[in-house]
Amino acid sequence: MTQSNITKARVLALVEAYGGDPARWPDAEREAAVALLSGDRDLARAADEARHLDMMLDALPVPQPNPALRVALKDIPERGNPLLALIAGWVGLWRPAAGLAAAAVLGIVIGAANPELPLPGFQSTTTAVVAQATGDTDTYSLAAASAVGFATQDTF
Length: 156
Known about the structure:
The protein is mainly alpha-helical. Helices cover 63% and strands 0% of the residues.
């Protein structure tokens, strides 16, 4: 970023994320942020507070891990959870099973929504009744059956 397009909010975000020392800030934004920091009292105050916090944190001793903790961590087996391994093995089978289930549900829904949909090699009840009444062996749709006077509610 150049000095012209870095904002006060961005400099505050850099101070909060990386501390008050500009050497810790990203190289691409450092020069523009320092220039904006030198001209703004609020930013300079925020950077001073962050530097003070950095000095206090740097003065703290580095904690050493407990040797018993290291031993306990080494005793943990490296293999994963058997339940997770079992679940992961089944994940590969879910997609094909879900596809087959979706196709079956779609077929049932279409079949239930269209009870007069003729199956290959079979005639629907209305088509058979129209063919018997007219002596015509051609197949008719429900619209053709109603055009010759047969209603879908008619039973014979």
